[in-house]
Amino acid sequence: MMNLFNLHTLAILSASTLLLLYFKRKRDSHFKRCRSKKLLHGKVVLITGGSSGLGRQLAIEMVNRGATTVIASPSEIRGRRAVDYIVSNSSCSTPKITWLALDLASKDSLKNFFYNFCNQFTHLDILINNAGVMFWPYDVTSYGVEYHLGVNHIGPCYLTKLFLDMLKQSKSAKVIFISSGKYTRAKEPINMETPSPEEYNMQNQYATSKLANILYAMALDKRFKSSNVPIKVFPIRPGFIRNTELGRRFNAFLTLLSFPFIWYYSITTKQASQTVLHCCLEDDIPSGKLYFNCEIQADGKLLTEDNMHDVVRKTDEIIENAFSET
């Protein structure tokens, strides 16, 4: 009797597993691939947060296409390790990959990074603002901004401003802001002030930073178009990615419990990289639009002109106050 019970249980588990794998494969088949075969010989690509996850995968993709690729992250040990990983996983016979130190929460690090980059490279063709944090305990950057907003938005926007002159020298420069579908959970009116520890809500702060990414990228692209500046800007939702360090401060026990959910609904870094590659490599697609799965996404209710102007004004004010030399 027990053997029959065990066989019955095993049959149910096997059938359930096969069914789950079928639906998972069917779900994954909906993700599109970048069709461009464009090579990037002679181009310089900068990827922040390039030592792991999506950034590291993007570095492999860029190196494979012949680009001189720079990855930026805070830890030298992990940065050097990432360079070795990228070289060993690249199909390029002579991979051009460099690591430079960058901590987006540090005013001095941002400025030193720009100085070091300019000492090594004469131009920049593609800037991918990929680095970010999520579910970070209450903290404030060295320039006085809440950590999510600083690392995810203010730091990347300031970095983009620093590189504008260098980007303008390229005939077809592109700036990418990696956002998240979580932007839809941001609250109006958009609050970009640093909260007190008692008011702090990490999910709200993350959502606000990702909404700010999209709105600022859209506004920046409009500004460039109106001034005939040859730079295209793309905000991107890469998807729910597994095996990244974005939520490295998230509770480990809860992460373990949610593993089946994460596995089923998440995508690989290879899959997530496709939309970024699509926007970086295709020359005839509209810029200043939110992209997901290699397609333009319809503007959500938060992506309004009023919110755009509000975020740009607040972002520029924060940068002016935080990074002023006086």
Structure description:
48% of the residues lie in helices and 11% in strands. The protein is α/β, with parallel strands linked by helices. The protein has a single domain, classed as Rossmann fold (3-Layer(aba) Sandwich), CATH 3.40.50.720. An eight-stranded mixed β-sheet has the order 3-2-1-4-5-6-7-8, sandwiched between helices. Helix 2 packs across helix 3, helix 2 packs across helix 10 and helix 5 crosses helix 11. The longest helix has 27 residues, at 2-28. The chain is globular. The protein starts with a helix and ends with a helix. 41% of the residues are buried. The model has no long low-confidence stretch (mean pLDDT 90).
Number of strands: 8
| Rg value | 21 Å
* Biggest sheet, spatial arrangement of strands: 3-2-1-4-5-6-7-8
Share in β-strands: 5-15%
In CATH terms, the superfamily is NAD(P)-binding Rossmann-like Domain
State the helical fraction.
Answer: 40-55%
